[in-house]
Design goal:
The protein is an alpha/beta fold. The longest helix is centred in the first third of the chain and has 36 residues. The protein has a single domain, classed as Glycerol-3-phosphate (1)-acyltransferase. The two termini are 24 Å apart. α5 links the parallel β3 and β4. The protein is built from nine helices and seven strands, in the order αααββαβαβαβαβαβα.
């Protein structure tokens, strides 16, 4: 039986598949309602306080726990003590599911900003929240000028004292296969002089597969690696070195899963 068939639940008996379909339909309704409610409240708080800190933490302490709990997902965090969270960093994380963002909000002890795909700005509530909280956006197939603007916006976030999380594979991986890390993602660290934190995540794809809303309970492991110092090399070479080193660290941590 293929992995994709198993992932879609087609190996399950028909009555069980029907029960899961009904349950997932209710979960989808809960997800949309919970997200709309939490983000509306966060945007209201942002408007009243004129500050991002409280509504950003609401994602970690209200929105994300609700969605994770609704999915029956447990988050196990390792290695957070390896990072000096008082300093800004660029986090580079594996990406297998949209629920990864919820897990990262819960795992990091500080407010996180994310670099997101440009199309997220068109998603109701989520896009509004991301823009209001100072996230940055990048076009997956954008031209060079657009890419430069996005990286400058990302660097400005880090220079402002905030940690930024990037998914350097550029898209969600499938079947746990870690794709190549795009060197451009590491330009932000080089431009700002901050360390890179590799983050290995496992289990999220089994809970909520890519491009699907088939939810099953499970455990998401979030492992923070030792921060990587910037190499003493020209920028182009440094980007390549960082990409290779960060991916290797992540592969090693995934092997410990």
């Amino acid at each position: 039986m293929s992995a994709s068939t198993e992932r879609l639940g087609l190996s399950e008996p028909l009555p069980l598949r029907i029960a899961w379909t009904v349950f997932n339909s209710l979960q989808l309704l809960f997800t949309v309602t919970w997200t709309a409610g939490c983000i509306s409240l966060a945007l209201l708080v942002r408007r009243i306080l004129r500050d991002e800190r409280v509504p950003l933490r609401m994602a970690a302490r209200l929105w994300a726990p609700g969605l994770l709990g609704g999915a029956g997902a447990k988050v196990v965090v390792e290695g957070a003590d390896r990072v000096d969270w008082a300093r800004p960093h660029v986090l580079v994380a594996t990406h297998a599911s949209v629920i990864d963002i919820c897990a990262l909000f819960r795992a990091a002890p500080i407010p996180l900003r994310f670099m997101l795909k440009q199309e997220m700005t068109r998603v109701p509530f989520v896009g509004w929240y991301a823009k209001a909280m100072g996230m940055c956006f990048i076009e997956r197939e954008g031209n060079r000028a657009s890419m430069v603007r996005s990286l400058r916006a990302a660097a400005a976030i880090v220079r402002g004292g905030h940690s930024l999380c990037i998914f350097p594979e550029g898209t969600r991986n499938r079947d746990g296969v870690i794709g190549a890390f795009k060197p451009g993602a590491f330009q932000v660290a080089i431009a700002t002089g901050v360390q890179v934190v590799p983050v290995a995540m496992s289990g999220s794809g089994a809970i909520l597969p890519p491009y699907s809303f088939r939810v099953r309970p499970g455990t998401i492991h979030v492992r923070f690696g030792t921060p990587i110092h910037l190499p003493d090399a020209p920028p182009a070479e440094a980007r390549e070195q960082l990409a290779l080193q960060a991916r290797q660290r992540v592969v090693e941590m995934m092997g410990a899963c």
